[in-house]
Structure formats: structure tokens, C-alpha cells
Amino acid sequence: MLTGIQPSGDLHLGNYLGMVRQVLSFQETDDVYLMIADLHAQTVPYNPLEFKNRILDLGKSLLALGVDPKKLVFFRQSEIPEHLYLYWILGTLTPLGELTRMHQYKEKKERYEHVGIGAGILMYPVLMAADILLYQSDVVPVGEDQVQHVEITRELARKYNGAFGEAFKIPQELLIKETARVMSLDNPEKKMSKSLPEGNLPLFEQEQEIVQKIKSAVTDSGSEVIFNEREKQGIANLMVIYKELTGKTITDIEQEFKGVGYGVFKQAVVESFLSFFKDSRKKKENISDHQVLKVFEEGKEKAQSVARETLYIVLQQTGLK
Ligand code: ADP
Ligand code: TRP
User: Fold this and answer.
1) Which of 76, 129, 202, 226 is most buried when burial is the number of CB atoms within 10 A of its CB?
2) CATH of domain 205-276
3) Any ligand 2 atom below 6 A from CB of 292
4) What confidence tier does 113 reach under pLDDT thresholds 50, 70, 90?
5) Is the pTM of this model over 0.90?
6) CB–CB of 37/120 below 8 Å?
7) What is the 8-class DSSP label of residue 72?
8) Per-residue pLDDT at 196
9) What residue's CA is closest to ligand 2, atom 10?
10) What is the residue extent of each domain of the chain?
11) Beta carbons within 10 angstroms of residue 297's beta carbon
């Protein structure tokens, strides 16, 4: 399996509950490729110096959370040029109309209208298809926002296999249903996102910031901690978070906070978060740049040998070799 994450901001609780924890569990038993999608992150404006640091920081965060380079292959997308080669070939097979209909394209096009965006954002799903197909992935652990991209990957794999010969496996997305879409704390109608820092909960943020963000999470005018996703979206989101961090059931949680109001519940969410991530937060402080770079170097070797094999078949089948 392969999955990726963009160095476009601080790693947050949505990333962890939607995707990272799937990786941590599958690395024990499966053949996992975990990639920092640095080329994808360059489809929106960025500052090069800051960007370089974000890549290292994301590497440290993931290692601190338990990503183990002895158990999986952890690498940077930009270090494997095969991704770009396959991206081009798949691009020639991709219907333009389909790319312009993607949710993410429409949303980002609007959000970045004032600065103007390049064609990278349109071609984004094609690069993601190349990432997935190069490693012959059967499954792709992701959050809900990426499902449409895995769907187009399947379509491109079938189209290519039909036209040139069976080069690719047909991949399937893998979601954790309850947490495939953790909502933003300041607007429970939007997904928690790296690019919307006001409402996200960065795992390695200062403690005071975390306390403040959870305590000021948008709820509703009521006071009962009961699960109702339609009418009490903010509370429902916090309840799911608390459930996942403590292992309690929704019914237990409703019982536990009966009659006490939102303030007490929010304090419990703060405590569950700080206790769940305590060890990782400590561990990150001791991981050096050098350590991360070494991990990427080893990952590059392993990833490239697989990517090369797939690309070689494609080059032969398409008449380039
Ligand atoms: P973001 O969308 O925050 O910028 P990425 O695009 O790098 O983060 O996503 C990395 C992984 O985390 C993807 O699998 C994505 O689907 C998942 N993910 C992102 N946000 C959430 C969320 N709010 N809830 C669940 N999963 C999420
Ligand atoms: N586009 C994904 C995201 O924003 C990151 C990503 C890049 C990815 N390549 C991938 C995820 C391949 C899964 C498989 O979350």
C-alpha cells in the first residue's frame, strides 16, 4: 500500500485520525510506502525556505508518532523522478473535462483566485495516480477528501491496461469510517485542514494553543453533551475525537458528561489529547535533521528500485523502449 501527505502546514488531528494511524497499524503487517508529497504541495503558493523546513518537520513529526523506517519505506516524492515520468504518460490519457470537475480543483481554484493558480492544481490527481500506480498499490489509506482522486486513479489504471497491456494493479481507497472527515474546530461544516490553521488542531503545537483552540471550539447554544451530527455538529465532532482518543463509546461519553455542560467536556477533550500525544510530543524534540535526512536517503533507494521496475514496463509497452 502507498499513501502520501503534503508538507503544506502542521500535521493535525484530522491527518492522524484519518490516515496516519492506518499507516502505524499496517506497517506491522503489510508492505507500506509512505511518501511526503512535496511536489503536490507546490501546486499552491509557498516560500522556498519555509518549504524546506516544513519537509524536515513533517518527517520528524511522523517519526515521533511511530512511523518506523525499519518496517515501511518512508521517502520524498520529489526524489523519485519516475513519478514525473509516469505522470506525463498518464496525463496524455486523462480526459480534461474530468480534471476540471474535481472537487479539490474547483475549491482551490476559487480559494487562490486572487494570486492566480497554475496548471499544477488541475493536473494534481494525475500525479497522485502516478504515485499510487508505480508501487502496484492494492490499497490506499486516506481521508474522505482524497477518495475522488483514488477513483480517477482506478479509471486511469484500467484505461492504460486496456490500451497498452496489464501494467498496473487496480487500487482501492481505505477509510476509517468514523474519522474519514474530522471537522474544523472553528467551523464544524468544514473539514479540518492544514491550510485552515484557525480551526485545526496541530499535534505538536504549544500546549496553551491547544487548550485555547479546544476551549473555543464552536458548538451550539445548548448545553447537553449528546450525539447529534445534524443539529449539534460541533459537539458531535468533539465527541468523535474524544471517543477515538480514549477508546470510550458514544453512550459512555453521554453518560459521563450528563448535566455538566460543555466547559467540563471540553476540558476532558484537552486532557485526552495531551495524554494521547504526550510521548510523541516529547520524542519529536530529540529527532535531528540529520536523522530525518538519513531516513529519506534510505527510503529513496528502496522506493526507486520498485518505481523503476514499473516504469520500465510502461516504457516498453508505450514504445519508448
Ligand atoms: P490537509 O488536507 O490537511 O492539507 P493532506 O492533504 O496532506 O492534509 O492529507 C493527508 C492525509 O490526511 C490524507 O489522507 C487526507 O485525506 C487526510 N486528512 C486530511 N484532513 C483530514 C480530516 N479533516 N479528517 C480525516 N482525514 C483527513
Ligand atoms: N493528495 C494527497 C492529500 O492531499 C497526498 C497524496 C499525494 C497521496 N500522493 C498520494 C495520498 C498518493 C495517497 C496516495 O492528502
Assistant:
1) 129
2) 1.10.240.10
3) no
4) confident
5) yes
6) no
7) S
8) 87
9) 4
10) 2-180+289-317, 205-276
11) 12
